[in-house]
Prior knowledge:
alpha/beta
Amino acid sequence: MTIRFDVSDDQRTPFYLRLADAIERAIIDGVLKPGDKLPAQRDIAFDLKVTVGTIGRAYQIARERGLTTGEVGRGTYVRKHEPETAKSDGPALLRNSTVDSIPGPESGDAKLDSTSAPLVGQADEIASVYAAVLRDSPAKALDYVRGVPESWVEAGAEWLATGGWRPVNENVVPTLGVNAAIQGIIATATRPGDRIVFEDLSYAAVARAATMIGRAPLVVAMDEDGMLPEELERCAARQHPRMIFLMPAVNNPTGRTMPLKRREEIVSIARQYNLLIIEDNIYGKITDVDVPPIAALAPERTFFVSGLSKSVAAGLRVGWAACPRGQAIRVTVAHNQLTGGRPYLNMEVAARLVLSGRAEAIRQAVMAEIAERSALFDRIFNVTTTGQAAAVPYRWVSLPAPWTSPAFQLAARNHGIRIDGEDEFQSVRGDRAHHCVRFGLSAVGERDILANALEVLKGLIDSGSITYVSVA
């Protein structure tokens, strides 16, 4: 089939945009029908006397507009628009309940780029608590927060308790989620220009947000036990940072747990160089890591944060921070200034869930579901995950050569699967490539959809990138 596109002569618009518009017009006018295959890149580039890269950009825009779809090894096709009730042939990746983070319609991709708590029936439980709060305190629930009830603090102290340690109530600050807690702490305890140390692989969103308020991220190398003490000491002596950010219970993305000896070594260096520490325990809450937290080893310099997003429900947006003595009021003020304050409704619901024991019951159900999904991953990838790692809601997967992380991420996306590449976990731009990706196991609504996605990803890994082309 020979297709000629009516490309506009408007020289003020880049050619690839004009070609994308022409493809759209051809589909609207019926020249291209659902299921039709578009010409190969090289053929149309030759016909139109432009580069193959220009055609690739036009085809990519057409895909982003929802006009076409790419199939590995087969080419680019006009998308078929089926009614909601229609059933497709073969195992389709169905719409996910997790809404995309960018404006626009919800994606139908399988979202393995999220690690929020899986659905275990907690919606009805949480709804009943919301109804009770609205019934008991309608005026407070619909107004600004005028104070912090002691029950919110007590719930936070109970939820933060781990490894035989429990924070003192007066040091606990209820927050609008863990990220808000971390940014409030950074704003409180550091100044513009201060440096913050991260592990080589970590939750890079913290570093990026800190950069926006004038703090400078640094990274140090890590091994199987986490941040290397000798590298931290070298960095502290030469770069004079103010703070360290760590996830010792469960590192994101590697899933590693820092042993007690390494924690003690980090604390010793922090004291020697007067470094503050943020200890993020958001994943530790669903793994039952029975190791004393850094906050127990160095309470005078450690801010300990956790919340409900991975273990109960991400949509509640509730967390808590345990601060060094005398710092809670400063973190409270900074948190309120940065976020606008805490919503009474959500905070009261979270406190009731925790203090009634319902949050703990949900947490146990979440852990059981993650264990089932972990076993599913193990079966498909023919591995055995043991210990605390079995409860981690993601897997850090090494890619065989010649796969690179960006190429594999794009290949997955072209199959309707969203995953996180290694760039999402690098706090600064570096020269080292890990050639790894992260698969989230918890946010996909149904296990069979997760299994289908994992089978596709395993097939991509086994086939190698030699069989993959990003565009036709």
